[in-house]
Design goal:
Layout: H1 3-6, H2 12-15, E1 37-39, H3 42-50, E2 57-60, E3 72-73, H4 82-88, E4 92-96, H5 106-110, E5 115-118, H6 124-137, H7 141-158, E6 168-174, E7 179-181, H8 186-194, E8 197-198, E9 207-209, H9 214-218, E10 222-226, H10 232-241, H11 246-249, E11 253-256, H12 266-280
Parallel strand pairs: 1-2, 1-4, 2-3, 4-5, 6-8, 6-10, 10-11
Antiparallel strand pairs: 6-7, 7-9
């Protein structure tokens, strides 16, 4: 399976988050006796491994990059198989609010399987809060607290701390279709921490399909597209049809690896801020978005 189908698709449920959302958090669960966990979120899987509890995983989705002996694939991110999950006989199933609305997890309750849905990740603070909650659930509260402090220090080192004017950044999850991150997405937070401002402002949805013509109004200083597909046709279309855009005229169009951006984990957030900050370093070109105190 390609990185686009794993990592790129990891963000696709977010596109639908504002359409279907539930406050269902699942059954209260303790894992002192839980030795078989199914994770329906690639981000939660990464956090479980980061907290040294990968041995508890009995099942993951096909979009996860975690593979180990005895860990079953329970289906795709958006269509996990209830039959496979039941056959695994897990003590607990974990999912997230980003993914849950398209996973029909109500069937887990009907099957009598304990599950826990973690709250939505709007920014780094939310990500760390959920990381800490997962640590408590796994009996790793001290480790989660220690690592959260380390990631927070790393973010402070990586985050933009200067003064001046921030470049406008258009971030696309894919080139075809063109899906843009808005200010209200956690990717918008990554851009802000890296020293930029999201070219697509507040929106009803964190991620929306947009037309390529919308770039004329957004007129970003930088265009970033998550890699994993052939982006040459998209970049060629920009160069041939949108020469007057600042990002095109100045050659500031970048692919970005999908190895960290799609995942709402503290470690991946920090890595993504570092990556985007390198792209923006030395820029202060926007005349429309001064930094606010």
């Amino acid at each position: 399976m390609t990185i686009v189908s794993r990592a790129g698709a990891a963000l696709l449920p977010l596109v639908f988050l504002s359409i279907v959302c539930s406050s269902e958090r699942g059954d209260p669960a303790r894992v002192e006796s839980a030795r078989r966990i199914v994770s329906l979120s690639p981000s939660l899987t990464r956090q479980i491994v980061d907290l040294g509890s990968g041995s508890l995983l009995a099942g993951v989705t096909s979009y996860d990059d975690y593979r180990a002996d005895g860990v079953a694939i329970v289906g795709t991110l958006v269509q996990p198989s209830l039959e496979i999950i039941v056959a695994i006989r897990p003590d607990l199933v974990l999912c997230s609010s980003e993914d849950g609305p398209v996973q029909n997890i109500v069937r887990l309750r009907e099957a009598g399987i304990p599950f826990r849905r973690f709250d939505r990740n709007r920014d780094f603070t939310d990500i760390c809060k959920n990381y800490m909650a997962l640590g408590e659930l796994l009996g790793k509260s001290d480790l989660a607290r220690q690592k959260t402090a380390e990631y927070s220090r790393a973010l402070r080192r990586a985050a933009f701390s200067g003064t001046g004017l921030r470049p406008r950044v258009a971030f696309f999850l894919s080139g075809h279709p063109l899906i843009a991150a808005s200010t209200g997405s956690f990717i918008g937070g990554i851009i802000a921490d890296a020293g930029g401002v999201c070219a697509y402002g507040e929106s009803a949805r964190p991620y929306s399909m947009v037309s390529i013509e919308s770039l004329a109004d957004a007129d970003p200083d930088v265009i970033i597209v998550m890699a994993g597909e052939d982006l040459q046709p998209f970049f060629r279309e920009l160069i041939e049809g949108f020469r007057d855009l600042k990002a095109v005229a100045e050659g500031r169009m970048y692919p970005v690896s999908a190895d960290s951006i799609p995942y709402y984990t503290p470690a991946d957030y920090v890595k993504s801020v570092e990556t985007v900050a390198r792209m923006l370093r030395g820029m202060g070109v926007s005349r429309r978005h001064p930094i606010k105190d």
